[in-house]
Amino acid sequence: MNEVFMGKKNKEQLRGMKKLPAKKWVAASLAGVLWIMPVLGSEGLPQWASGPASVAQAASSLNVTKLGEEVITSGAIMMKYKFTTVRSGKTATGLADVIRVDLNNPYVSLDVMTGKGGKLTTRQSTGGMAAETGAVAAVNGDYFNTGGEGAPIGGQVSGGVVVSTPSQLNGMYAFAVTKDRKPVIDQYSFEGLLTAEDGAQFPLAGINKGAYSPEDGSSTYSHANAAYIYTDAWTALERPKNSSTTPTEVLVENDIITQISADKALSMAVPKGAYILRTHGLGAQFVKNHLAVGQKLSSAYTLKSKSTQQELDPASLQMMIGGHTILVNDGKATSFSRSTSSIGGFRARTALGYSQSGQYVYVVAVEDNANSAGMSLTELQNFMANIGVWKGMNLDGGGSTTMVDRPLAETSATLTFNTEYGTEQRSIVNGLGVYTSAPKGEVKGIKISGSTVLLIGQKATYSLKGYDTYYNPIDVAAGNPSWTASNGSVTVNGGEATAVKAGTATIKAASGAASASTEVTVLGGENLSSLTVGTATAPLTPGASVSVPVTALAENGASLTVPPASLKWELVGFKGSVQDGKLTVDSVDPGVTTGYAIARYDGFSTAVVLSAAASTPWENFENVSYPIAFTSNVNGVTGTAGVVAGSAEKAGSKVLSLSYDMTAGSGKMYAYAQLNGTSGKNIPAAATSMSLDVMGDMSLNWLRAEVVDGSGKISYIDLAKVIDWNGWKSLSIDLSGSGIKFPAALKRLYVVNVEEGQDERAKTGTVAFDNISFVMPSLSSEAGLPKGTAAMSIGSKSITVNGAKKAIDVAPIVKDASTYVPIKVVLDAFGGSAAWDKNTKKIMVLRGAKALDLTVNKKEFVLNGKRQTAEVAPLILQGRTLVPLRLVSEQLGLTVKWEQKTKTVTIES
């Protein structure tokens, strides 16, 4: 009977195999996210011949420049590169970040990080895993099935213990470091044997694997007629899900069988130090015929190189992480070992490689964000060869690409660059961490940490941080450092600085014999290019209250939040107040239909325009003509979205219903009701608030809306942090501080089930929406302004407005080919007001939704908080302030025409 399960060849393979440790199964492993899963059969057959021709073409156009480097810890440095290439005749540039690890340095090491708590089937961001494990730098790792439990596709080893075995897929490479600190990149297969107490043997197919379709032709399903081991590193109760097989499971503790469950899974997690043998078909028959409770069961395994057929004892490895195709071999770009069609394009990339000497490991991350154009795999090959990689392979990329590193003297790793999602990090199954074991050294240097740009009135805290001879952080604060600041732009007291006036100051700190300094620039109004309020419009209604956070954009591109104490507010047309970033209307002046809240920072102004506004019905779902669809971010999440007949208090009307079932999903799960395809439904004007009726399901999930503007920028609106009610409820949401740029479109209404505390929230439910309205003050801010035509002639003290001639006290003049008039003449005819500040020689012009700030003898002007430049400037002539007619009129939305023969100016609105 033994021969049925194990032939002679397989018996001989038992020699030299590693016995499976019974109590050492921990997951400290490697990570990634599989975009195109072999499990789903989407990567197709290997493309053995792809690569060389395109590689040669790309090599000549890829130029690489090293921008700089910084030590992370003894034995690891961060290097930043800029690359330039030509794509379709156009130049593209980007950035790549490379951590070089010196394996000759005894204090630095590489290891795998796994999910949460070092366990498989959990997911966490790269930064989260780094913080949890104490890594000084880290990068995302292996591919994985996004719809699966959360286990890597490739092999995974930590400290000589196999955490997960390689899948039977073609062309998949792995990176490893041996315990004698030698790097290896190769393809590996897994071979294992189970031996019963009676001597019967059966092949062990793998350890801690999700379900997939092997590419060896042996079976349609990975777990059919097979036996797999699941250790306590596997936290999911399904082993695995979607396996298309019914299991027989065996619990083994200290090499002794303690439970057998025939034709059904054991309803338990794997106990610590034990493992569950999961079998099916022939594997289950082996259990039935040869295993019994109380008997011994032993296991043995080995890894084997697919290229050399040599066996590799996992106990000899410090770590191993799986990847994808090989990229570089013998210092040159090489043919892809696997089809790359489904992971092509110019994306963020992650890769691993090592130098010809084996001394250096290169951890590579290519940026794809506002500063970098991403890379193709072919470009990545050539980049790696350019920086010294002798052999290298691809890791998971795209939205998964994430790198964190610990800046010098800091105590924790932070995001090295923005991901494809900005500062958001995708939750993944594993990652590669860089660790230091260096002892505490002597102080080598100190540095001041804190903001280098401040606004007047802003307070900032600075800290003195040090690093030792191993470039690891060391506490220097105990020495009670002394602080000083130069030139009066900044005052400093015990590390807290206050910006007093515009200028550049040097902050110095000393601790014992060590000292450090940093330059801090305090921005004045002249240093700003724009001043933006979080909401540009607001309702001019007593009792109305909106958030008015103000952001300053410096001429050097720095963006800062302006402290409320740094602003001076002037209210025009109404009584009210601005406190702690909130504008409140107490009363409206008689006859006023448009008001202004003018914010000034060191002479630079911006304004909120207030106008009478009522709630505008936007969608009641009674006559919907656009498509509504259900979508999700996870394959396992199902549901429906559409317009249905209302019930209870909504009987007789129609509502938008969103039903969801997330029981087959994992991680952070979304259930979307998507409006009008990918474009959404238009919100025509700036909205300060939103109201809607929502039918809750007491699921305790998070309820949100997604809005996209014309540039494609996405904003998220929290409708309810927790759905903690049943039945219908009216919600009102303040949009005034949302930063949404209108016109925009409401794209999705959706439910979110976040990972933290998922056991407390329902994974199934139904919510509904009705009567969505917006308050859009900007629709009425221009209402009531006079319309018509006005004409003036040079030298004539009269103006004709809509056919009626009126006298004016100052005639228009021409100076330097520009026509100048008193601004009052224009505003009397077309509405608006002007205010003169004799101290600053500024003129603030308000008309409709426009706030125009002019300065005598300066060509620069500020319109609605943005600095611009004109060809001419306002001037003072014979004691009267005159403004350039064309500049002012056109900026206020008027049209100016010039008749040369009669020297007549015509203004139209």
UniProtKB/TrEMBL annotation:
It holds the Pfam family NAGPA. The keyword Hydrolase applies. Signal peptide: none annotated. One of its GO terms (molecular function) is hydrolase activity, acting on glycosyl bonds. SUPFAM superfamilies: Copper amine oxidase, domain N (SSF55383), Invasin/intimin cell-adhesion fragments (SSF49373). InterPro entries: Cu_amine_oxidase-like_N, Invasin/intimin_cell_adhesion, Mao_N_sf, NAGPA. Keywords: Glycosidase, Hydrolase. This is Phosphodiester glycosidase family protein. Residues 800-907 form the Copper amine oxidase-like N-terminal domain. Residues 259-435 form the Phosphodiester glycosidase domain. The keyword rRNA processing does not apply.
